Prior knowledge:
Blueprint: H1 3-30, H2 33-36, E1 41-42, H3 43-49, H4 55-67, E2 71-74, E3 77-80, H5 82-89, H6 91-111, H7 113-118, H8 128-138, H9 143-157, E4 161-165, H10 171-179, E5 184-189, H11 192-201, E6 209-213, E7 226-232, H12 240-253, E8 254-264, H13 279-290, H14 301-310, E9 314-320, E10 327-332
Parallel strand pairs: 4-5, 4-7, 5-6, 7-8
Antiparallel strand pairs: 1-3, 2-3, 8-10, 9-10
Amino acid sequence: MEAGMLALLGxxxxxxxxxxxxxxxxxxxxxxxxxxxxxxxxxxxLITLHPAWDRLLLDHWLEQAGSLGLLIxxxxxxxxxxxxxxxxxxxxxxxxALYKELVKHWSPVFADLPQLITGDADKKSxxxxxxxxxxxxxxxxxxxxxxxxxVKKFNDSKWRRILDIGCGEGLYLQKLMEFSPSxxxxxxxxxxxxxxxxxxxxxxxxxxxxxxxxxxxDFQLDIGTFDVSLLNNNIYxxxxxxxxxxxxxxxxxxxxxxxxxxxxxxRGTNDxxxxxxxxxxxxxxxxxxxxxRGFRGLPTEAEIRELLTLTGYIDLEVIPLPFGMxxxxxxxxx
Length: 334
Ligand SMILES: C[S@@+](CC[C@H](N)C(=O)[O-])C[C@H]1O[C@@H](n2cnc3c(N)ncnc32)[C@H](O)[C@@H]1O
């Protein structure tokens, strides 16, 4: 066999494995099977629990989950492997939402890629499920990389008032409020459903934290001044002109020496560490965003540097988070 053909077959097998993994994970979440299989069960046990389910399909699901290393089979019984337990433990930390995005929303968009490229199909709009739920929830998956850096920055800078623009589920506000009992803050979130969840998540701090449902481009709001304004995982929502307006507006509400922190995945950076390369997924995310009306994909490092310089921020610090997954750009207002 030719080397090219062999390489292609190898890639195809990996592709089927990845797709199988995705389909089994998402269906397992929807059917609550990861939870049910925390305790050992046979196919018969599961059918007893769900008499209306299709036995043949469930048998295939168990077999597939076993061959993907998600379940361990002992005689006729299945239970979660270490990997399967991780799937269940971390499901609410962004991964379930991310997998659902890939299956239900990324696949149909990329299926229309030829028409999108030729211009025979209009650019897409995000489905309401994406805007109201999945985008903000999937963003939680970067927390293990972001939080250690953010807390260090907090300790170094001693912020007293924080503004979090496009705060999503309010995770970083919640963690910072918990970490520092004297910190006060405001979160701004455009989507009403996401705002409600952020308010619930941050309810313990509502004496010093307010979550406002508003467009961050509308700075008519009287919100006071801040030591830091975060723009985490959302700069790509704003077109180049809007980014300039937004950064000027943020400057107006920053105290002297106040900081802006822009967290974003980037296009075009090379991974230093090949062990866990994030270049391909970042570029795929950028590609997916660019298929949507009003979106241009992820920014490059040069674009963010230029934006901060143009809008008069100084003392720029660019911090790559582990594996180059995202970069934090911190700069001062004066
Ligand atoms: C990918 S999520 C990131 C959420 C959070 N900052 C995080 O890092 O986990 C982006 C969020 O920005 C919000 N957003 C987008 N455009 C906005 C705007 N113009 N004003 C306020 N929020 C906005 C979206 O609704 C979404 O919840």
